[in-house]
Amino acid sequence: MLCSQNVPDESVWGKSRGLDPALPPYPLVRHLLDAAAMALHLWDVYLADNQRMCVAEGMGLAGELDRARALVGLCAGLHDIGKLSGFQFCSPRAAQFLSSGLAVSSQQMATVRAGHDVAGMTATAEVLEVLGYEDDGEMRATARVAEIIGGHHGRFHRLDDGVWKAFLGDAAWAGQRAAHATAVYDALGAPAAPGAFKAPAAVLVTGVVILADWLVSQESYLKKRQLKLEPSLTEHFRRSQADAVALLREAGLTPVDLKRRDFAEAYGIVGAPNPLQQSVMDELPAAAGSGRHGGVMLVTAAPGDGKSETALEAERILSNIFGTYGYAFLLPTMATSDQMYNRVARTLRNQSGEDAGLTLVHSMAWLSSAYADEGLAREAVVTCDGDEAPAGRGRQEADMRPGRWLRGSKRPLLAQFAVGTIDQALMAVLPVRHNALRMLALSNKTFIVDEAHAYDPYMQVLLGRLLNWLGFYGVPVVLLSATLPGSVSDRLIKEYLQGAGHKSTALKRRTFPAPYPGWLYVDGETGSCTQMSRARQVEQARMRSLRLRVDVERVVHGDKGGVANRIAVIKRLLEPVATRFGGTALVVCNTVAEAQETYRQLSEEIDCRSHEEGGDVQLLHARFPGDVREERTAEVTAGLGRNGPRPARRIVVATQVVEQSLDLDADIVISDLAPLSLLLQRAGRCWRHEEHWQKHGYPDGIGRPEWADEPRLVVLDPLSGGGRMPVQWGEVYSEHLLGKTSRKLAEIERAGIAIPGDVQELVEAAHGDSEDFAWNAPGSREAKNWAEHKGKETAERSMAALCAVRRARQIAELHDLHDMEGEEDEWEVSTRLGADSVRLLCAYAQEDGLLTFDVEGTLPLPEATTEGRMPSAAVRQVMRRTIPVRADWFRGAEPESFAPPTSWAEHPMLGDLRVLRQPINRGKAQAVKVGDKAMRLDQDLGLVRE
After folding, report:
1. What is the model's pLDDT at position 801?
2. For the whole model, what pTM was predicted?
């Protein structure tokens, strides 16, 4: 056993870069004590009941929360113990302050380069032995602590991948490691070793360590402490504990208790809750019981039935039962996330939650107008000093890592309330850096997934894997959908229950059918299943009952077809709107190009004014610059929303962007053929608010036009009558699903669709797991489409299973969470399959060579410094004008032709952009040849590719 004779040598530095150079660097032992103090406060305030219970049980300390708390503090207090190594010499300025007894080893130790995280992992066993901890083989508590220390930079390492002994130094250095560890150990009350340390519990502890480290590493805080050090370590630790309260609060991470309001006041909704919502308020508390290990809830109802408010009511109940704080509300797209963010913000304000941490969580969230420019001015965080990064790490690692996690007062999933894309949550089960921090963030709040039907098989597997981990942690989960096949909901529920400890063999014999409309709750501990009461289900169905008229129009795409030409059919259908009768119509197209052409032709015939000029015909799709798309989405939502004012005449031509979470109501919906579940989503924008308006009055007192005497969906079907799928649709949708949908529409066209009564049956008919197939003509196109569809589904599920981390109870070593070659970071993996995308900036090359944002040449592109730096406002100005496009559009093109300006090359965001330099000729922008297509940005149509 090592002998610890020394007190900590405070010449050993922990933080240096960014601090006052006139003072000695910040001592390592004091930074370790800061982190330990913050970890204790996180345990007390930030961690939810389910997390504390899971960590304690994972340490074999069930019922001994105080012991578990101290051990979490110890892990945080030892996180940088590896800096007592050759790391001390990676900053010559800081190293000059080392005492002579340690500095004498500089030549030998400085010849080896390694990360201090790995050095700490290597030294842990010796250090813990000094504290009286011994690895008792099977339980491997000491080894688990080593894994946590090695993973505090966000990536776990194999225990065998240690550092050279020379890097750790001689006996003097070993003695100092022991002295530093003892100082932390004593401050925490000498916690005894745990009897066990399960891997999933250690993942949460790692998240706490990372968060504690980052919070006490803020530059402003370190400068303040550096200026005046307390005379003793005891006093220092006491001060650190006191400071932790303000640091957490100022970071926006201290949970806030909302003031409960009645339903209408809380959600800003006129009238009483509907039967679905009322049943959750009345029946869910008994279903969830006293609450020991979470549960999963599925809410199924037609679009417009108030599922979002239902989920928030369920969250209030479940969080109260299980002791979680707030919620993560996840959606399929950035556009739907932006919309939901504003709704949640209003809800929090209505419940006195202005001080609660609320974040918008997606890759471009900081560009949303919901976040002011000040949100980009983040607090500097001293994460690493000197140059210890291995060769080959690029600019993104150095420049981006702090901004991804601590962006000033804005924190993504760590906040008490988070709204964003599902991708941000799925990163937790992919082998990326800081997935442990994401897991910590997700497991202390209720997890809500909206539009659960909207994810392909690849994402479904990732979502199931995440639910497995959340089931282990006892996190309450709420899944929302209007069109989710029973086979998919079954798989997701069973994944959650497996994580909670139920055997897969027993689950195979069970199914979890959800009522439609209604809800289903499955208890995590017992597996017991409770459904919404039949009486309330009938009441909800009756209240929202309507019969949707469904018409199928056979169409021919392109210039041919005569009266069956697609554009001619659309014009005929819109004739009542275009004439003096007016009204509102939504035309949903399957591709951006078809939406642009449809809009152009309708505008020419109905209203030649552009969107910007206030024309009656509007266009919305994903290929507008970000700022323009945000403005157009707001305009479309205002015009077709619940509260009005309602335009006398409005035709919105759009793509799939209107399918999900946009609160629109049209008198008629016209849609290209799409899989049946998506058609039902599109139809959900038809007469969406009729029941509400019948009760409370139409906006401005003006009802629907005379021609709109019933809700009507018109499907433009190119497959009807033996037609073929348009070539331009490419791989947008499975031809097998389109064929099934076309045949089903032919069956129901005259009868229409009873909503909600027919919805689930139709979804199962088109999207269920049935393997039935008529093999009368095995070589037919139909058989080929079926085989391709099933093959693609199987391939996507297999790909996801290979990419995702293992299920929670299958993890043996923490390195299993990063068990892939290379160092995967967030921008190097995909939560979605399909073509890779890049962001395109459409700029204008003036005749004098100047690149500008505008045709007129008055707004030049900003220039970065020689170090690649640029003011945040300028970065925002650029990125808000970018458009996500397929990367393969640029395949074969000269990279230099579309490269960003030279000064942007080293910038972590701007350096990866593609720039479309549209030449200006006599004041007009010209298209640019990209491969075999020409591309241009049209102010009214968006990005045109033809």
Report:
1. 87
2. 0.90
